[in-house]
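Sequence design from tokenized structure. All designs in this work follow the same two-part layout: the structure record, then the generated sequence. An example of the structure record is given first.
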């Protein structure tokens, strides 16, 4: 099934929406001020939350997977001598911190939401239970998935693909700070070309930096479209959900 075959429920504005249920992957870098390169910048989180709230108000069922690279990177820190599994678990805790920050900001925007963690910490988050997550979505709540998959050696990209399939999302949306997927680094090469559509195998064969290979393969095996776009260009997520061509689409059909 291509992205164009997805359901088109009516939006509140009277138009047609191409997507009904989305899983949005937010990297840890999306939470930080680019000038500092570390931590959680509340102004940045506010901007991100406003875009998400706008889409949720359109009737889109919205789930999120958050990374933790703004606070901790398991693979990097393991190279410095920390056991890889331990470093990855520390990274999972970092994702919970980001999830709680986003939960707070969305709450202040009057967006009902729940945090579910793959690592049990019931004082601050619900345990991840698939059927409960589906019920939250059906009730119009935003579900924020934290803790990755709950297992070391798996990235939050893979967690995003897994959760998207679990909740039967229409697409996996990767929010970035660039407009889409390019054939080379657009910062270094001003002639870099952005792809509008790619096939899963082309992404893997060309080693394009979309998501890690495990996540791409999981999406390919289950025919789950991946959409990569710039979340910080105002209105992009709304336009994407309304069926406009925004960013790059990775699917089985180019």
């Amino acid at each position: 099934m291509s992205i164009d075959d997805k359901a088109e429920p009516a939006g509140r504005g009277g138009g047609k929406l191409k997507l009904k249920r989305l899983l949005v992957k937010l990297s840890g870098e999306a939470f930080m001020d680019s000038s500092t390169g570390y931590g959680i910048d509340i102004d940045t989180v506010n901007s991100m939350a406003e875009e998400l709230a706008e889409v949720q108000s359109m009737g889109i069922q919205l789930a999120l997977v958050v990374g933790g690279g703004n606070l901790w990177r398991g693979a990097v820190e393991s190279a410095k001598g920390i056991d890889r599994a331990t470093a990855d678990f520390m990274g999972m805790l970092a994702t919970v911190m980001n999830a709680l920050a986003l939960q707070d900001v969305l709450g202040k925007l009057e967006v009902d939401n729940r945090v579910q963690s793959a690592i049990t910490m019931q004082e601050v988050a619900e345990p991840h239970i698939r059927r409960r997550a589906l019920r939250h979505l059906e009730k119009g709540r935003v579900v924020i998935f934290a803790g990755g998959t709950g297992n070391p050696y798996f990235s939050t990209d893979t967690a995003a693909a897994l959760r998207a399939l679990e909740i039967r999302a229409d697409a996996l949306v990767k929010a970035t700070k660039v407009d889409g997927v390019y054939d080379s680094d657009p910062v270094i090469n001003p002639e870099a070309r952005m792809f509008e559509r790619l096939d899963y195998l082309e992404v893997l064969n060309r080693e394009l930096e979309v998501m890690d290979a495990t996540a791409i393969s999981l999406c390919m095996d289950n025919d789950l479209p991946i959409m990569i776009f710039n979340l910080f260009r105002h209105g992009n997520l709304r336009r994407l959900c309304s069926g406009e061509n925004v960013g790059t689409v990775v699917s089985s059909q180019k």
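Residues 10 and 16 are 5 Å apart (CA to CA). We note this feature because it recurs in several other targets discussed in the main text.
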